[in-house]
Write a structure and sequence with these properties.
The structure is a homodimer. Chain A is mostly helical and about 220 residues long. Chain A is built from ten helices and three strands. Chain A folds into two domains: about 60 residues, Orthogonal Bundle (Arc Repressor Mutant, subunit A), CATH 1.10.10.10; about 150 residues, GntR ligand-binding domain-like (Four Helix Bundle (Hemerythrin (Met), subunit A), Up-down Bundle), CATH 1.20.120. At the A-B interface, helix 1, helix 3, helix 4 and helix 7 of A face helix 1, helix 3, helix 4 and helix 7 of B. Chains A, B: InterPro entries: GntR_C, TF_FadR/GntR_C, Tscrpt_reg_HTH_GntR, WH-like_DNA-bd_sf, WH_DNA-bd_sf.
DNA sequence: CACGTCCTTATTGGATGCAATCTGCGGCTA
DNA sequence: TAGCCGCAGATTGCATCCAATAAGGACGTG
């Protein structure tokens, strides 16, 4: 991989994450190369890297297919994720928040509160909420000050369509509940209460996993992915 | 990668794990290719995969060097590992042991007990103990029945020289203590006591991390790795 | 008509050639 | 003498070529 090779890897990874290449889809080297306007070499590199990450299935001399995640995979991943995210919250509470992290979390909370106050409800609310949600949790993980932990959490979030499916059902009630939980977690972090922070985060991630599994089953049943 | 490419990847990974390519060592494509008797292509594939795994550092147009792990890295990794291993123990206790796992753990315990009983003490004791230790913990992880969790734990164990450094200081006292802890963990698993099993495993891994950090500092100070 | 074998074809695996980029050194200049 | 420019060597990045393997179909036979 190189300047161009890194781009190719990123392109394919995003294509998988966004569902453009669904589970079971066969990725042909020559075809991908033609589509991306490069030769087979950088494509091959990208495919082997993504296969090593587990995003693709590889059989020698037969090629690469997008890994088809099952609901059991999702349950396993979230069981691990609960531990990792709650560890991050515990460490963040132990370390305390630096001013930048505190500011980022406060802003996320405020702007989410604005969304809750909106009278008209439409899908743009969800699109506004997702980045706020991400930045809030990113601040928590950053405050944990453990780069390896952050990398591991990131690996639990590389499943295709994770964010989309997880927030597929989205209504005013869910948004309000999420805000409440974030506020409680922020309070625990500010007060430097590691155990409480870990517990809140664990429950938060647990509920996220439950929603994920339900929506995932529905998506699979609809023949999609 | 292919039939040969997979071999090349494995060779280089083992070379790093065994310390043949120490931290900071520069891996030259052409040189590696000549040494392994293949062309640059499979070597390039192997290097990019290992770089994606974090075992190598990569700078475009400048090549690959073996990642130099610091004692801070080790501390971060073990902080995560404690959670993952104790989760595995908890899940194993919830699931219970199947006959094969039960047998594997019993055999590991018995043969370790034999080692403890040995009167003559030499380095061969350590070499006999390491596989027994590995198989015991492998049985625990298998009983957790969570493939994703096992893969994540494996990633926390890919640091070069991990096993060697971790067990560098090894004496009769340490062996006896390890056996006691394993017996206690096995008891908790047999009795289906998830919380107790998780606690024992967490403390076990915590102590392993402490030894690891101490030995690692000494190794670094000695200029090695 | 069914099954096995052989062959064709498409695709991957590996090797090599060439261009682009970086590094190190020597010389030049202020 | 210190700093900068430029050139030469080495190394990586990408493209292309050829061999090897697997899949699918056609054909022949029981």
């Amino acid at each position: 991989m190189s300047t161009r090779g890194l781009e190719v890897t990123r392109d394919i990874r995003e294509g998988i994450a966004e569902g453009r290449y669904p589970g079971g889809f066969r990725l042909n080297e020559a075809e991908m190369a033609a589509r991306l306007g490069v030769s087979r070499t950088p494509v091959r590199n990208a495919l082997s890297v993504l296969a090593a990450e587990g995003l693709l299935d590889y059989t020698p001399n037969a090629g690469y297919t997008v890994h088809r995640f099952t609901v059991e995979d999702i349950e396993e991943i979230f069981r691990v994720r609960i531990e990792l995210e709650s560890l991050a919250a515990r460490l963040a509470a132990e370390n305390g928040l630096d001013p930048a992290q505190d500011a980022a979390m406060r802003e996320s909370l405020e702007r989410t509160a604005e969304l809750v106050g909106r009278s008209c409800w439409n899908t743009r609310i969800r699109e506004a909420f997702l980045p706020l949600n991400r930045s809030f949790h990113a601040a928590v993980r950053e405050a944990a000050r453990n780069a390896f932990l952050v990398a591991m959490i990131h690996k639990t979030n590389e499943v295709p369509l994770f964010d989309l499916i997880r927030w597929r059902r989205f209504d005013a009630e869910l948004l309000r509940q999420s805000l409440d939980e974030h506020r409680e977690l922020f309070d625990a972090l500010s007060r430097r209460q590691p155990e409480r922070a870990a517990r809140i985060q664990a429950e938060h991630t647990y509920r996220a996993g439950r929603r994920m599994v339900q929506n995932w089953s529905r998506t699979e049943a609809a023949g999609g992915m």
